[in-house]
Amino acid sequence: MNRRTIGMLVLVLVVAFYAFGTGFDFFFRFLYALLLLIGIGFSWAWINLRGIELKVTRDANRGQVGGYLAGEVSIINLTRLPKSWLEVAEATGPSADVSGRGLALVRDQVRSWRIQTYLTKRGVYRSGQVQVVSQDPFGLFRLRREFLDPQPFIVFPAVEPLPDLDARFAGLPSDSRVTRHWEQITTDVASIRAYVAGDSMRRIHWPYTARMNELMVKEFDMGLSAESWVLLDMHQDSHFGVESDDVDNTEELSVKVAASIVARLMDQSMPVGLAANGDKDHIYRPDGSPEQRGRLMEALSEVRAQGQRPLQEFLYDIRTHLDQFNALTVVTSSVDTQWVGALNDLRHQGVEVAVVLVDRFSFGSLETMEGPLEALSANLIPSYIVRRGDKLNDALRSPARDIPRNWISGDSRGLE
Question: Which of 42, 236, 274, 280 has its Cβ near the most Cβ atoms within 10 Å?
Answer without folding.
Answer: 274
